[in-house]
């Protein structure tokens, strides 16, 4: 017959009281657990776990090695018997944990080959630290630029055929009026080939005169205006001005005050370079990878075209001879 909840009867509180009395009576018959350690006031007593016992044994130096070593070969057996130097063992451990990066490379290589270091065999990483001179290129101070600006202006105005290069690099003390006069005088010269104005503190006003010079001068082939204060928009105008005669082969305008041109200016620069078929070397900081690739492809195209033209003229000259 299935057990139904409706057949249950409520238990009275008397049965619960009888149960409690029985438990109390039985508890008095059971003996208490014997206390092995006598009680002493102030001591904290608790049951210790297996982990705490292991940590106590480790601190006391009685912990057994939890890792089993299997020595199969004679070399491993010799290593365990102490035939290998302590330096080699330390180097092997350093290789495992990656701390060999903090040691001197020459010393580490010698220790790996068990070579004699400082008169001793092996290595214990306790050698005396020594310093070695750094072998590098010594940069000497460039001599002061002593170009006579007034003489250059005079010779440019007179279209001197022997004046093909004007170098005013690092001449910040030259006034802007003299640079303006130099630009205007260069427009009258038909023999000038290279103008260098790097680190002369020129700005957009001087660059505007240079734009007019690049648009009309057919003899100019190299321009250097690095390390100045030319704005990105003026840099774009300078590159566009190279399309006037397309005689400039080298153009440098890096390290300006505003190092980043911007995406729009870089697009204009790359478009102008693609339309230029004479430019072989250009120095302009371009951040966009797409623009850099376009400029690089245009420069490579010009190099190849110049090489083919040189081969053609060489063969034509040999044929005429």
Automatic annotation (TrEMBL):
Keywords, in A-Z order: Cytoplasm, Cytoskeleton
Gene Ontology molecular-function annotations: tropomyosin binding
Disordered as annotated region, ranges: 37-58
Biological processes per GO annotation: actin filament organization; myofibril assembly; pointed-end actin filament capping
Classification via Gene3D superfamilies: Ribonuclease Inhibitor
Keyword Cytoplasm: yes
Keyword DNA-binding attached: no
Subcellular location: Cytoplasm, Cytoskeleton
Main location: cytoplasm
GO cellular component terms, semicolon-separated: cytoskeleton; myofibril
Top-rank taxon, per record: Eukaryota
Pfam families: Tropomodulin (PF03250)
InterPro entries in UniProt: LRR_dom_sf, TMOD
Signal peptide: none
UniProt-listed PANTHER family: TROPOMODULIN, TROPOMODULIN, ISOFORM N
The protein's name: Tropomodulin
Lineage: Eukaryota, Metazoa, Ecdysozoa, Nematoda, Chromadorea
